[in-house]
Amino acid sequence: MNERRWWNGSWSRLTRRDVFVHNAADGRWQVELRRGGPAGRVRTRAFESEGEAIAWIESAVVAVEPNWREIGAAQRGKAKARTRRKVAKSGSGGDTGGLVA
């Protein structure tokens, strides 16, 4: 499944917004507008082509607020690698930070 994602740059649950576009099983393109992070409210819109979906996102969402940015697959991979390094680093010192396993 092809997917692209935009994010408004906010980490706060109250102000965070995410937009996803992906190819649905029926060949149409679906735009998912998410408010409040992963557990937030979701709205969807369907489009006939990827171009129509991207044009709508850029004009109705990204152009309205200045902080929107597209999160590419390479950037998501870097973020996962950083998370793995942090987990490995914190687990290698032997200190559990007061937590009992």
Walk me through what this model shows:
It contains two helices and five strands, in the order ββββαβα. It is an alpha+beta fold. It has one domain. A five-stranded antiparallel β-sheet has the order 4-3-2-1-5.
> Could you give the order of strands across the largest sheet?
4-3-2-1-5
Instruction: Look at the helices and sheets and give the structural class.
Output: alpha+beta
- How would you sum up the major sheet? 5 strands, antiparallel
| Uncertain parts | 94-101
What coarse outline follows from CA principal-axis ratios? globular
Number of domains: 1
Order of helices and strands: EEEEHEH
Proportion of residues in extended strands: 25-35%
Radius of gyration: 18 Å
The rounded distance between the terminal residues' Cα atoms is: 38 Å
- SS element count, helices: 2
Average pLDDT value?
80
Counted beta strands: 5
How helix-rich are the residues, as a percent range?
A: 25-40%
Notable characteristics:
single chain, disordered C terminus, 33% helix, 5 strands, 101 residues, alpha+beta
Summarize the structure.
This is AP2/ERF domain-containing protein. The protein is an alpha+beta fold and 101 residues long.
Topology of this protein?
Blueprint: E1 3-7, E2 17-23, E3 29-35, E4 41-47, H1 50-62, E5 69-71, H2 73-92
Antiparallel strand pairs: 1-2, 1-5, 2-3, 3-4
